[in-house]
């Protein structure tokens, strides 16, 4: 149990990311000095949204060049930091080479950041952004979960390089983090396992990210015949940022935390958008039959394989978020609010 000195700088890897942007905003609002590790500190256009926040908050932001796959590249950014937030990791589902595009950056990146923590004497705690994908691979895994509920005690054993490679990469990266943590006594590891992250982005150009691509078909007509019956976990991006903050500064935070506001269904996400947007946009009103998904899924998106369909469609997602509520004092915002604000951002950016 370690107490973090708020007068010391705090490192955020992948600082221009979707979740990281809101985390940086929270840290700056609390008056902290943020060491923002980014690929290119000279890209003023990409950093202007963080700069605007810094100008209007009591905190301070300093940029450092760093590359996930480059050993030692976080040394300068981490110097003097007691707390490290490692949020940088790829979130893509449609990739040509899963080993190159997912496994290597997730695993090697985690190793590079944590090995640097071992070499930086000031570091007391690392908060790692993982995913519920490290807990389960398919909704069918729920059948083997104790009490048919996903909890922090469970690990994903059904994903592989060939099936659900993104989930596999998150599992390998988090296991690597725990392995490195257990081999040292200097710093503590706290892990955040969010479900599908939704809600508005600080940087409007991020509406091309994977989370937004999942919501876009509700409005662009691709799902006008119906939404697949798919169980989902959802959480607002601002709640994920809050969970990181609490995990970083609450002295007794420990282990893994499922950060998920709602166990819901894809069709219920559509229903949440209906009142505000149903008249103007082709938001699905009914469920698409499984046989049609079986037929069309692999054509629409090659990541939607027949194996994926059989192990996920028609099956619920049920996760227990009570540890986050009890220990991190999480108070999840309404699903409708998150989805409506996200959908509006897609409209504002001409993507719907």
Give a short overview.
The chain has 352 residues and is of the alpha/beta class.
Q: What would your notes on this structure say?
A:
This protein has a single domain (10-347), classed as Rossmann fold, CATH 3.40.50. Helices cover 40% and strands 15% of the residues. The chain has 13 helices and 12 strands. 47% of the residues are buried.
- Lateral arrangement of strands in the main beta sheet: 3-2-1-4-5-6-10
Question: What sequence of helices (H) and strands (E) makes up the elements?
Answer: EHEHEHEHEHEEHHEEHEEHEHHHH
Number of helices: 13
**Count of individual domains:** 1
State the shape: globular
Low-pLDDT windows of residues: none
* Main β-sheet description: 7 strands, parallel
Percentage of β-strand residues? 15-25%
Task: List the topology elements.
Elements: E1 10-13, H1 18-29, E2 33-38, H2 44-55, E3 60-65, H3 75-78, E4 83-86, H4 98-119, E5 125-129, H5 165-182, E6 188-194, E7 196-198, H6 210-215, H7 217-220, E8 227-228, E9 231-236, H8 237-249, E10 255-259, E11 262-265, H9 266-277, E12 287-288, H10 290-300, H11 306-312, H12 322-327, H13 335-348
GO molecular function: oxidoreductase activity, acting on the CH-OH group of donors, NAD or NADP as acceptor
InterPro entries: Epimerase_deHydtase, NAD(P)-bd_dom_sf, NAD(P)_dehydrat-like
Keywords: Oxidoreductase
């Amino acid at each position: 149990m370690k107490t973090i000195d708020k007068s010391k700088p705090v490192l955020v890897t992948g600082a221009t990311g979707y979740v990281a942007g809101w985390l940086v905003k929270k840290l700056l609002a609390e008056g902290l000095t943020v060491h923002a590790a980014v690929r290119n500190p000279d890209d003023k256009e990409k950093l202007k949204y963080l700069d605007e926040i810094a100008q209007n908050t009591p905190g301070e932001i300093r940029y450092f060049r760093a590359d996930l796959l480059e050993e030692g590249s976080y040394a300068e950014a981490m110097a003097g930091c007691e707390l490290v937030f490692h949020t940088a990791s790829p979130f893509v589902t449609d990739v040509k080479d899963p080993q190159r595009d997912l496994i290597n950056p997730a695993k090697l990146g985690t190793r590079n950041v944590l090995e640097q923590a071992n070499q930086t004497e000031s570091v007391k705690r690392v908060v790692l952004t993982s995913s519920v994908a490290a807990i389960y691979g398919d909704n069918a895994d729920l059948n083997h979960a104790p009490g048919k509920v996903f909890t922090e005690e469970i690990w994903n054993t059904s994903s592989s390089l060939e099936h659900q490679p993104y989930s596999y990469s998150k599992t390998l990266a988090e296991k690597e983090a725990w392995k490195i943590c257990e081999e040292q006594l200097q710093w503590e590891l706290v892990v955040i396992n969010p479900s599908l992250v939704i809600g508005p982005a600080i940087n409007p150009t991020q509406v091309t990210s994977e989370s937004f691509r999942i919501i876009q078909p509700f409005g662009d007509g691709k799902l006008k015949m119906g939404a697949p019956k798919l169980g989902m976990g959802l959480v607002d991006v601002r709640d994920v940022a809050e969970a990181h903050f609490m995990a970083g500064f609450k002295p007794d935070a420990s282990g893994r935390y499922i950060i998920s506001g709602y166990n819901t269904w894809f069709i219920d996400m559509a229903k949440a958008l209906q009142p505000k947007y149903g008249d103007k946009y082709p938001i699905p009103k009914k469920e698409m039959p499984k046989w049609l998904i079986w037929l069309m899924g692999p054509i629409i998106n090659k990541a939607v394989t027949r194996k994926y369909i059989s192990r996920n469609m028609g099956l619920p997602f049920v996760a227990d978020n009570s540890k986050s509520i009890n220990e991190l004092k999480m108070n999840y915002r309404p699903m409708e609010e998150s989805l409506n604000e996200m959908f509006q951002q897609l409209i504002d950016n001409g993507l719907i």
